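Sample intake sheet
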Amino acid sequence: MADRAMQHRRTHNLLLFQRLLALREGSSPFTLILDSLEQSGRLLILEYIRRAKTTKTTVIFIAFETLTPPSGIDILIKARRKDVTVLQKEISQSVSKSTPTILILDTLHSLLSSPNPNFNLPSFLSSFLSPSTSLLALYHTDISIPTSPNPNPYAPPPLPLLKYLATTIFTTHSLSQVLARKRAAEKSLAEPMFGLAEEIEGVIIGRGANDRRGVVLEMEHRRKSGRSVGEWFFLPSSAQGMATGPGKAMEKGRERERVILLDDHPLYKTPSSGDGIASESGNATGDDAITFSLGLTEKQRRDREGVVLPYFDAQKEGGGGGGRILYDMGDEDDFDEEEDEI
């Protein structure tokens, strides 16, 4: 039953992931990627561009901080130090309503720190959305947003506002750090901290950051009904080309699906209950991992069988006759013929 539920979850969520990255039927008008110094979101952006070319989707890349744009884009718009009004007009002219289009913003911090007091980020982003146009934006969680001189006390913070507007949120994690946290949880140890969270002077990037094997993606997708779907995936880098695991075959003539569930990753997969409990050395399983014996020796078994329990004597002395009370009088007991007569 558990295998059937896992198979259903695997098939359903992998198809949902493929649908989101292929931008089918406007599945996610606004996708937000949350990355950090520990794991960049660039690999996921490259995956979006790669899949957009297979579906003949126009890719418009809006570069605020990117010096060398990725290959495969159709239109490049350099937005660094541009006025917001000019930038909005240039983007609107590049978007075609007749062909599927994806707008990729390499960062949102330049827009959030705009000096224009009348600038409204939700209105700016929603002005580009249409049935044929989707938006993909990157937000660096470890970079603070400068406060405006006259902040609105009723305005929500930028990150909660973006999470509220987004229909799909991808949070990137390093595979090495995810495995380290899992090992600590299995041993009931404190969760390790990495990078800026360590609060150690001079430490900016933690150990195992930006793992070359791929990126771990924490997905939160909101359907039109309002129901949220969450899942963890592993997207291998192009050098790894990991295409293992069930349910990866696509149609004939197309490349195999590289994305897998994090639970299917060989380094993350939890052994089944029938595999036993692994020891620290990794060789002992089941009873071999226990430091004491649960069985009995032959002598202990013979001694146990030779023990005569009290109720055995009662059964031999005429059990089935209504029951009898066997009592041996002691030296200090007083015999009463009426009460003690049995």
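Comment: The first strand starts at residue 30 and ends at 35. The chain has a mean pLDDT of 81.
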